[in-house]
């Protein structure tokens, strides 16, 4: 072994070095504790992140389900709109047919009105003709009554003459 001489200065340096190492070790232990706390906090944060990820995954799944239900609702609404459009088309066609029917009925009513007017005119003419016929018949009956009266008078005259001839014979 060699002989080294430890002087106060060297001992002070050694003491300073040891003190410095102790301080460094204390800082190192503090840093380790801080690192352990940070690791613990990081683990807790990681655990919270995992829980958040699970919550987000559940929300994403719920959102996907809601989106699927929404898509199904949109499809149902689309089908209903198509049905409504088809019904509207049928109603438009019905309306068109009804308008055509109304036009035909209008023409028929107009035609019937002309027929009724013609019948009314014919009826008026027929009434006039009937009135004239009744008037003529009244005149003819009056003439017939006159002729009967004349015939009866002539028969009376002839009978009287015959009776007078028979009485003379």
Measured distance between first and last alpha carbons: 228 Å
SS-derived structural category: mainly alpha
How many H/I helices? 1
Mean pLDDT: 92
The tally of strands reads 0
**Which term fits the overall shape?**
rod-shaped
Q: What series of H and E elements makes up the topology?
A: H
Low-confidence stretches: none
Strand content: under 5%
**What does the main sheet amount to?**
none
* Helix content bin: over 70%
From the alpha carbons, calculate the radius of gyration and give it in angstroms: 69 Å
Explain briefly what this protein structure is.
This protein is an all-alpha fold and 169 residues long. It has one helix at residues 8-168. The protein is built from 1 helix and no strands.
How are the SSEs ordered, and which strands pair?
Layout: H1 8-168
How would you describe this structure in keywords?
single chain; 169 residues; mainly alpha; 95% helix
Describe the structure.
The chain has one helix at residues 8-168. By secondary structure, the protein is mainly α. It starts with 7 loop residues before the first helix and ends with a helix.
């Amino acid at each position: 072994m060699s002989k080294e001489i430890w002087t106060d200065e060297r001992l002070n340096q050694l003491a300073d070095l040891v003190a410095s190492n102790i301080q460094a070790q204390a800082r190192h232990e503090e840093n380790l504790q801080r690192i352990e706390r940070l690791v613990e906090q990081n683990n807790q944060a990681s655990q919270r992140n995992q829980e958040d990820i699970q919550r987000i995954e559940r929300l994403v799944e719920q959102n996907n389900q809601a989106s699927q239900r929404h898509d199904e609702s949109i499809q149902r609404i689309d089908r209903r709109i198509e049905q409504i459009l088809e019904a509207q088309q049928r109603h438009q066609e019905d309306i068109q047919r009804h308008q055509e029917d109304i036009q035909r009925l209008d023409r028929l009513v107009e035609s019937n009105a002309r027929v009724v007017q013609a019948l009314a005119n014919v009826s008026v003419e027929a009434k006039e003709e009937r009135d004239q016929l009744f008037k003529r018949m009244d005149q003819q009956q009056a003439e017939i009554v006159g002729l009967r009266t004349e015939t009866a008078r002539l028969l009376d005259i002839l009978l009287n003459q015959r009776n007078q001839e028979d009485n003379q014979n």
